[in-house]
Write the structure tokens for this entry.
Amino acid sequence: MAAASPSAVTGFNLYLSSQLGSGDVEPPPPPPPETFELTIIVRTDKYPNESSWVMKDDIDTTVAERSFAGEERETEYSDVLNLEAGAYTFTMFDSYGDGMCCSFGEGYWRLVAQDGTEIAAGGEFTDQESAEFTLGS
């Protein structure tokens, strides 16, 4: 068997460089992260201007928030979030410090998964109430 000539080896190396380094062949993009639909339901009390909420991820970054200033009294509102798998903290606030229930109305908050499962709920608190939960595995 004859030894390969230097030009044959160089041609082989150029072929690999051409295939791997030219950008002609790109790997497929990674799949998008799995998201989970979460509905936040809030029924305001008689003083909606005092109410707000914030959703934070596991590194304390705010991913969503809402104030009910200017909204109707004793009215139910829904916000739908699409969140990636992970740990989250939802916090409901009342700036006056009397919560949402039951002295000045029957206000409440609920976190509901896409399948209808209630993840957390509340309304009787003073200035704030939090719920920690995890979506996905």
